[in-house]
Amino acid sequence: VIAIRRFPMNPALLVSGVLLFGCRCGGQAPIRRATAPVTIAVIDDGVDVSHPELRGRIAGNDAEHPGDRVDDDHNGFIDDVNGYDFLEADPVAVPNVASGDPSHGTMMAIVALRAARIATHDDMESADLIKILPLRVADEKNVDAVAVANAIHYASSRSGHSVVNLSIGTIRRTLPGGLIAAIIREQNIVFVVAAGNRGKRIDEIGTSLCRIQENVVCVAAVDTNDRLSRSPKASNFGPLVELAAMGVDVTIPGSNGSNRTETGTSLAAAYVSGVAARVWSAAPQLNAADITRVLCSGARKSHVLGESVRCGIVDALRSLHMAMATSREIGMSASSVLPAGMQ
Ligand SMILES: [Ca+2]
Ligand SMILES: [Ca+2]
């Protein structure tokens, strides 16, 4: 358990609208509430914005009037009120699914929002600050790397902090230079990338986005016993993978009321995206690099998982507490010095 000391209220933090809450660590501690909006851009195969769990949780665009085929906010995208479809150059980023089953992107959105809320026992008011931005770049078969780069650029143009969820697996053949550049360019975004489901060491896969270290958090999938997911969705692993998160037999609600279970590193990445957004929302003074650091330093070590990932299993509360401590350092000394033990 991370000890959080009580400390005097800092006027600098009050000015920024952030109140520090004490922590009764070890019990149902009052944790720092979400205070700032954070967007989770789901760069995927589209999100069903009418899914019961996503109603009211989509990052809108008030400056854009829907359905009039006019780019009201002059951002280059017509009628982009619920994200954008970069595959079809269309305002409607909904997936092509005929059945009631949620698309991959819809599942990512649901898992991310649940992680943001449940991991910290949030009230709805806090949860409401975290919203999904659907950006479609893939159909059922292929990911369009150019569309991904464009979607990243679009996400960066939105106000407030952004987490980008990239549960799109490895790119075939080679990693496009344009996509790498698009990620590295956006140092104010936390990118959360799925490690992939081939059961391999990431450093042996030349085309993995996890090879980009800068501002990318790579996530492996584990079950409730901290074991990496197994075939046919065997989690990749290795020193280039920072975190592991729950990604085995995750219950996903369909839009028609039925449930199904899913396994894979995509789900684990979405979980971490939700946690990252929640932590950032409570500590908006932190930058993207700070958030990736507190996710890593707050991660739980597991003897079962061992050295399969670099930092451990994502732990929302511990990371939140570390973010608080880091915010305090920033507020008091105007520097981003991290407490001892962080990296
Ligand atoms: Ca527009
Ligand atoms: Ca319009």
Describe the structure in your own words.
- The chain has 343 residues and is α/β, with parallel strands linked by helices.
- The chain has eight helices and ten strands.
- An eight-stranded parallel β-sheet has the order 2-3-1-4-5-6-7-10, with helices on both faces. It has a two-stranded antiparallel sheet with strand order 8-9.
- β4, α5 and β5 form a beta-alpha-beta unit.
- The longest helix is centred in the last third of the chain and has 18 residues.
- The N terminus and C terminus are likely disordered.
- Bound molecules: calcium ion (2 copies).
- The site of one calcium ion has 6 residues, from loops.
Describe, in short, the structure shown.
It is built from eight helices and ten strands.
Which terms would index this structure?
binds calcium ion; two-stranded antiparallel ribbon; alpha/beta; 8 helices; single chain; eight-stranded parallel sheet; 14% strand; 343 residues; globular; disordered N terminus
The tally of helices reads 8
The ordered H/E elements are: HEEHHEHEHEEEEEHHEH
Q: In what range is the share of β-strand residues?
A: 5-15%
Give the helix/strand class: alpha/beta
Oligomer description: single chain
Radius of gyration (CA) equals: 19 Å
The rough form would be described as globular
Heteromolecules bound = calcium ion
Low-confidence sequence ranges: 1-30, 334-343
The side-by-side strand order for the widest beta sheet comes to 2-3-1-4-5-6-7-10
Q: How many strand segments?
A: 10
Largest sheet geometry: 8 strands, parallel
The average pLDDT score comes to 84
Distance N to C terminus: 18 Å
- The percent range for helix content is 25-40%
